[in-house]
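Input:
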Amino acid sequence: MAEIGTDLLKAKTFLEHGELVAIPTETVYGLAGNALNTSAVAKIFSVKDRPWFDPIIVHVPDLEHAKSYVQEIPEQAILLAKHFWPGPLTLLLNRQSIIPDLVTSGLSTVGIRCPNHSITRDLLKSLSFPLAAPSANPFGYISPTRPEHVNEQLGNKISYILDGGVCSIGIESTIVGFENNHPMVYRLGGLTVESIEALVGKVSVQLHVSSDPTAPGQMKSHYAPTKKVILGILPDLLKKYNPNNAGVLSFQVDYKMKYQFILAPSGKIDEAAQNLFIGLRLLDKMPVDIILAEMAPEIGLGRAINDRLIRSAAE
Ligand code: TXA
Ligand code: MG
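Output:
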């Protein structure tokens, strides 16, 4: 098992030696390595068992640092970064050649983000290189939002997990790219479309729902527990399936089932987002054959929650 701790110097030393360290962010835990070191980046792919065609996000302490790795930044991107960084926003920007091909799977853009977590920002500021970091889970499985989640799945493959407690947002960053200087949302995430639109006006949402290796971005099946997830209206699902073999993931209602997890007892959508991956993990470990789940209201973070639920249920 990996050591879980808050020793920044230890984390820094591993990273400087080309080793990987799991790091907390406000969204999910990341599996981090030196983004400028091809062999460290190759380790990320191998530890996660991630296909080479799926590019990795690069993490920087602030906008000034981002400028060293990308070409001219569109005005709208500057506006978004100034407003939402540090925070759950990844910008797809044209990369400079210092960013290895491996990081971007050969694409001309690199995903850049400045995470909002104090211990990880301190770490980033102490390093002379940015950190490539995908979510710290085996490819296709549920993202980790606590250090123990990382340890359960990758603990035998890495040495150190920087402990930042439970992730405050609980769902990955929103990915925004630019076409003719116009922002496009490619992944729904912790920053709502509504907040982006309040700043830059109407944006289009273009989710790549594909298993096509030439269209890196979003896989149709992802965030998936080992048990089959079935989405629908819970009272109907509970009539159709035997509740003794089913885990129930409800938004707010207590269905009084033996195996259940309520995402948001308060009814608040940010509570549901923070609990989503925690709930899916818990239900996955229960003695059930299937997980029955209902969607969240389709507004704000609810859209990102529903995106994850749909992918977790995809074949
Ligand atoms: O919140 C997050 O974004 C977390 C934390 C650790 O920062 N990271 C994360 O990374 O979710 P990952 O690798 O699990 O998801 C990144 C997504 C992938 O779907 C990848 O294909 C897409 O971002 N991506 C990365 N760079 C890209 C690029 N240049 N063009 C298109 N998609 C890109
Ligand atoms: Mg991921």
